[in-house]
Specification:
There is one protein chain. With about 190 residues, this protein is of the alpha/beta class. It has one domain: Leucine Aminopeptidase, subunit E, domain 1 (3-Layer(aba) Sandwich). About 35% of the residues lie in helices and about 20% in strands. It has 5 helices and 7 strands, in the order βββααββαβαβα. Helix 4 links the parallel strand 6 and strand 7. Helix 3 crosses helix 4 and helix 4 crosses helix 5. The model has no long low-confidence stretch (mean pLDDT about 95). The structure holds adenosine-5-diphosphoribose. Adenosine-5-diphosphoribose binds next to strand 3 and helix 1. Adenosine-5-diphosphoribose (APR) binds next to strand 3 and helix 1.
Length: about 190
């Protein structure tokens, strides 16, 4: 008997944090923690391409040949089909590799969240799911990423009414616990 999935909500339920698999999220768009090549990799990138099928890579190749011949810059975001995934679209974004961008690591990570949300809103999408960008292979400390991502999401949603649901999907219970402890969403009374 699977234990009921506990979720944690913020911003009057507009944001929920949960433990799960990003590829299983039935939302308008799932966000991929990609690299500049857009040609796939491991972790989230590997799971999305593996479960989504070749149409995602084909769309990424098209983007590389037309709009980003030199690759997708860190912090930028592009949208493709989600192939066989339950989601409708994939938004690929490139997180910062911790320590590679001087004092700009946090700004680049915030840009991943901001630009992914902006792209979703521009495409009239209402629901989006994020993995913990850069906290795996790219070595961004989870507690620092929690503060950056929650502030960036809260800041975007404060001036947007298109996005109705943001899911923050953590692969492990430990990752979810660290996020819940270090997130900086406005508390109810502040964000009333
Ligand atoms: N669902 C949700 N979260 C996942 C999943 C999944 N299926 N698989 C991994 N994660 C978690 C990791 O445990 C980590 O917490 O997502 C977070 C991001 O980890 P990575 O996928 O390693 O992404 P990132 O740190 O941004 O590194 C990107 O890794 O896979 C390559 O091609 C990718 O070069 C790029 C780099």
């Amino acid at each position: 008997m699977q234990s009921p999935q506990t979720t944690h909500s913020f911003l009057s339920g507009r944001v929920i944090a949960l433990q799960g698999d990003i590829t299983a999220q039935a939302v308008d768009a799932v966000v991929n923690a990609a690299n500049w090549t857009l040609m796939g990799g491991g972790g989230v990138d590997g799971a999305i391409h593996r479960n989504g099928g070749p149409s995602i890579l084909e769309a990424c190749q098209e983007i590389r040949q037309t709009r980003f011949p030199d690759g997708l810059p860190t912090g930028d975001a592009v949208l493709t089909t989600a192939g066989n995934l339950p989601a409708r679209f994939v938004i690929h974004t490139v997180g910062p590799i911790k320590g590679r961008h001087g004092e700009q690591d946090a700004a680049y990570l915030a840009a991943c969240y901001h630009n992914s949300l902006k792209l979703a809103a521009e495409n009239s999408l209402e629901s989006i799911a994020f993995p913990a960008i850069s906290t795996g292979v790219y070595g961004y400390p989870r507690e620092e990423a929690a503060a950056v991502s929650s502030k960036a999401i809260a800041s975007f949603l404060a001036s947007d009414d298109q996005i109705k649901e943001v899911r923050l999907v953590f692969f492990s219970a430990s990752d979810l616990r660290v996020f819940l402890h270090h997130q900086q969403f406005p508390s109810k009374q502040e964000g009333a």
